[in-house]
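Please predict the structure of the following assembly.
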Amino acid sequence: MSTSTHPLKKYTRSHIMRTTTCPGCGIGTVSQAILRAIDELELDMDDFVFVSGIGCSAWIPSPFYNADTLHTTHGRPIAYATGVKLGLPDKHVMVVSGDGDLTAIGGNHLIHAARRNIDLTVVLVNNGIYAMTGGQTAPTTPRGLTTITSPHGTLEHTFDISPMIAAAGASFVARWTTYHPRQMTRSIKKGIQKKGFALIEAVSQCPVQYGRASNLGDAVSMLTYFKDNSVRISKTQKMDAAELQSKIVVGEFVDTEKAELTTELAQVKNKLRASP
Amino acid sequence: MQNNKRVLKGTHFEMGNWACTEGAIAAGCNFAAGYPITPASEVANRLADRLPQVGGTFLQTEDEISAICSAIGASWAGCKAMTVTSGPGISLMQENIGFGVSTETPLVIVDVQRFGPSTGVPSVGLAGDIVQVARGSHGDYQIIALCPESPQEMFDLTIRAFNLAETYRVPVFLMADGFIGHMREQIVIPEADQIEIKQRKIAEPAESVLDRQDFLDVNVAPMPVFGRGLKAHVTSSCHDEHGMRNLSDPAVMHRYAIRPIEKICTHRDDIIQVQADCADAQIALVTYGTVSRSARAAARLARKEGLKIGTLRLLTCWPFPDKEIRQVAEQVDDMLVLENNMGQLYPYIKAEAAHACHVSFLGPQTLGQIHDPEFIFSHIKELIA
């Protein structure tokens, strides 16, 4: 009997045999998009340092990826990754974490890293809820949704992450859902190659917590919802606010070249070294 | 002024915060992150100027949380990293100081302490953080904290802080305060080759992290620094010797918590420094940091009048110099603990000394002011009477 091995298995630690994700979770799709991007770029895992925070999606690189991985405190992976990148400017430093980690408790680090335009690739898995802790409302939870900490409906407005980080100064910003794994992979490749701050917002299904809170149901029906409600950014110009209200705008929000922090720092050091 | 030299050999008349910066650079610091705060800002200001001149990096962060996190990240990237702040910044950093402890990260944290609680008085010194740096992050752990008493020691002990951080793979505090941070005094910087510099041990490549001990060695595991193909797994969650997370095995939980504590306690004789000048003393004045200067002056005043007054100065406050305090307690009749606070270290000192001698506490005449030697001396006379 022949055995078959997953083509991306070579990128994971061989002694890690099981995941912590629930059945139907979108994290597997996002993880494969990351590894496929690295594979298609023909990069080595030793070219990377992966940094993650706290929450389900922080478990994408740690413990699975066979690379240097730093699993940090809640909200702080971008702050840690900033130090790693400044210490190892020639490595690709990738942050993988969730919407609660990166936009609530860690929101300040996210916008400031984008402002600095430091060469990090951030894969932000947005499932619209705090999943690991049991389904509490998040800054990304749609207004009105009932969760266990918003039993009378979420009263607050919702963060629109990608445009916010584009406004903060990122070089590359893209948003896709787990219904768009090929497009997501292409954007992650672009994000890795971009010399500057790159955010890939991966809207992902959490059938266990979000599916229950929203009555969207299981993974398949959530993916169908993503398919039916995603709108390409190029088509949004002809749509009014009311039409866009419940839509997921997908595509590349920013793709530009601008001065990047580690490059600028290297230039300053070279100038100081050359001067008497 | 442009200067590409790491060691500014010579005799200088500068502030303690200047000396701290030069000590850091002389020790090989090549990454610092910080957020502006009085009375520590001069350290960050000078690091921002000096580090790029010697090939290093300074990052001004969006807050102190980011400062400590990026310094830890840089240390894992192989840098000799530091951050500098004051009490409010330490309070913000505490969770991630615990991360540094848990992941056995070499790191120097300079705390130029100020008057609290809360926003308090930024420009007035107070030894307000002496316990919070040892007990302020959640969980059980040991820390190293050094207490300079002069600008010269801000140079010398900053170098020692980096050497201890590298040797033991731990965060090390330098506990200055607003007084010596801003005090100008003579600082002698020796030749570079006269300064002892320690470097961390680095792990060797292995097939898997399971074939290597990266953590939890009482005698310090070589560090699997990033960027060298070592495929390190680093987490502050409970982990085994390989760095792999384990939240189910009580034996692993036990080792995860106690090995980093044992690492410091086992090597306490190498870490702890005290200065005891109380061979024939009846009363020992026990101090650390700035107030030590007043204690020495008071002892001189008392000795002129024939009183047998000695001093015990703790250059290392953590790990706690229990043995050294006991030894002095068993020689003297009285111990007078002087701290520029309401007695933060006093209960710890009393616990070690009260079996052998009378122990009492004296804060400054006005909190936030340096003890007046005459004030200490009059208190000594009351104690004897």
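Chain B has a mean pLDDT of 97. The first helix of chain B runs from residue 16 to 26.
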